[in-house]
């Protein structure tokens, strides 16, 4: 399918969604929101896709929501249209999603990256929540996901001053899983995505769900959910296959 604001490619079991509005540093428009969400939902329902990568350009993952599109909106208008409310659908995907971030990930761009399961950053990446400089605050989860990722001190710093955090600071703070040289970002991310996609998809879904549960519940409830999911995986052929393959010193062939 042809999209206007994104490119979608698929190879083996990995799909790559590239945000593509180069003239606006990939600013997130409503049109782009629709397309990304549609693409993710399509890929998520394809059992042949084991991992999704979302990336941007070298200069910008995304420089935020499209300020020119937002500028003249009114309160009743955005309330009624539930402006940018569909991004939430991305977080309902069960397939693991990696954000590969080069350059600016600001405002909604940072928030989109944080909706993904893991962020891999080029060493040129810049993260920030500059909404306050526009007279607003984060609206796609920044105040919540950033705080959960990096804690109150850094989240307050970023949300109140609008300053940018570089890749190293983002990694030290726990926002980013890995930092790689910018020139190698896509190669390195594809290796990680390939590794994830080579696992049993059933098991990968269970792992993603278990980690995500920890953000929603108490330790006791989370541990119970994890234990039940662990037990449930013993009903899958992939558990039998994975453990047999280990004992037989061969590679597992997942039923998935
Ligand atoms: C619309 C944008 C844009 C944005 C950049 N552009 N960011 N257009 N919305 N968020 C456009 C510029 O207007 C310009 O268009 C072109 O992209 C290149 O940008 P420059 O500013 O010329 O580039 P540079 O000088 O390198 O500066 C890069 C930058 C700066 C530091 C990233 O562009 C910037 O500050 N952008 C805005 C960042 C921001 O405030 N984001 C938060 C948005 S609010 P022309 O036509 O002039 O060439 C938000 C809320 C989310 O995200 C919640 C929603 C519910």
Describe the structure concisely for a colleague.
The protein has 256 residues and is of the alpha/beta class.
Structure write-up:
The protein is globular, with a radius of gyration of 19 Å. It contains ten helices and ten strands. The longest helix has 20 residues, at 142-161. Strand 1 (6-11) and strand 2 form a beta hairpin. The strands form two sheets. It has a six-stranded mixed β-sheet, sandwiched between helices. It has a four-stranded mixed β-sheet with strand order 4-6-8-9. It has helices at residues 30-44, 67-70, 75-81, 108-115, 142-161, 167-173, 185-197, 201-213, 219-232, 237-247, and strands at residues 6-11, 14-19, 51-55, 60-62, 97-101, 104-106, 118-122, 126-128, 164-166, 178-180. The chain is of the alpha/beta class and 256 residues long. The structure holds hexanoyl-coenzyme A. Hexanoyl-coenzyme A is lined by residues 24-25, 27, 63-68, 84, 104, 106-108, 130-131, 134, 138-140. Hexanoyl-coenzyme A (HXC) is lined by residues 24-25, 27, 63-68, 84, 104, 106-108, 130-131, 134, 138-140.
């Amino acid at each position: 399918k042809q999209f206007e604001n994104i490119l979608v490619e698929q190879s083996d079991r990995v799909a790559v969604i590239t945000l593509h509005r180069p003239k606006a540093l990939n600013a997130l428009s409503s049109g782009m929101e629709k397309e990304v969400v549609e693409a993710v939902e399509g890929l998520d329902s394809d059992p042949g896709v084991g991992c999704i990568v979302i990336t941007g350009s070298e200069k910008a993952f995304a420089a935020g929501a499209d300020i020119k599109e937002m500028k003249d909106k009114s309160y009743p208008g955005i309330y009624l249209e539930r402006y940018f409310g569909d991004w939430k659908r991305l977080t309902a995907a069960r397939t693991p999603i990696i954000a590969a971030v080069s350059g600016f990930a600001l405002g909604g761009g940072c928030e989109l990256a944080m909706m993904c399961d893991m962020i891999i950053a080029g060493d040129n990446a810049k993260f920030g929540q500059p909404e306050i400089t526009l007279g607003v605050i984060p609206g796609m989860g920044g105040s919540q996901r950033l705080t959960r990722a990096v804690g109150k001190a850094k989240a307050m710093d970023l949300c109140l001053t609008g300053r940018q955090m570089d890749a190293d600071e983002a990694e030290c703070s726990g926002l980013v899983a890995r930092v790689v040289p910018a020139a190698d970002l896509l190669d390195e991310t594809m290796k990680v995505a390939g590794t994830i996609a080579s696992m049993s998809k059933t098991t990968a879904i269970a792992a993603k769900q278990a980690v995500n549960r920890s953000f929603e519940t108490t330790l006791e409830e989370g541990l119970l959910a994890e234990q039940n999911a662990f037990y449930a995986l013993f009903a899958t052929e992939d558990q039998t296959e994975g453990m047999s393959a280990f004992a037989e010193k061969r590679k597992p062939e997942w039923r998935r």
